[in-house]
Amino acid sequence: MRNLKATDVPDLVRILEATGAFSEEEVGVAVELLGIVLNDHSQQDYEVAVAEVAGRVAGYVLFGPVPLTQGNFDLYWIAVDPTTQGHGIGQKLMSHVEEQARARGGRLVCLETSSQGNYQRTRRFYEQAGYVEESRIRDFYKPGDDRLTYVKRFTSREER
C-alpha cells in the first residue's frame, strides 16, 4: 500500500472503466475525488491507498473519517484491476481501511452500494469481508435501484 501519486490517475481511470461496475458519471466523480486528494492538501475528508503488483497499479481505495461523528469512517470507492481480481488485493485494501480506522479510534466503517444485479458480486465481496447490510433506501438511485448501506463494527453495542 502506498499513497496516491498524480501519475496513478490514468491507471486508476483505466481500472475504474475496466471493472464495468461504474457508469461514466461515476468514473467522473471518482476522478474528481482523486483530484481533491492530490490538489487540496488542507482537506481532511478523503484518503487514498494504492495497491501495486509487480510495480503496476492494481487498485485503490478512497476512504475517510465522517465529519461530526465519533469514530465513523466511510469507504467511498474501491476498485481492483480485473486482471488481478481474485488474488486478495481487494481484501488488502479493505484491511488497510479498517487498520487506519482502528488506529484512529474508529468504531465502524460504512459503505454504500446499489441493489442492482450487476452489483451482486460486489455485495458478496463486502459480506465475505464481514460487512452486514445495515439499511436500505428503496428507489434511492432511481426507481428499482435501492441504496444499501453496509457496516462493519469494531465494537459491539453491548460494550457501550
From TrEMBL:
Residues in N-acetyltransferase domain copies: 1-155
Gene3D superfamilies recorded: 3.40.630.30
Record-linked InterPro entries: Acyl_CoA_acyltransferase, Bact_Acetyltransf, GNAT_dom
Single GO term (MF): acyltransferase activity, transferring groups other than amino-acyl groups
Cited PROSITE patterns: GNAT
Domain of life of the organism encoding this protein: Bacteria
Pfam families registered for this protein in UniProt: Acetyltransf_7 (PF13508)
Keywords: Acyltransferase, Transferase
Full protein name: N-acetyltransferase domain-containing protein
Organism listed in the record: Geoalkalibacter ferrihydriticus DSM 17813
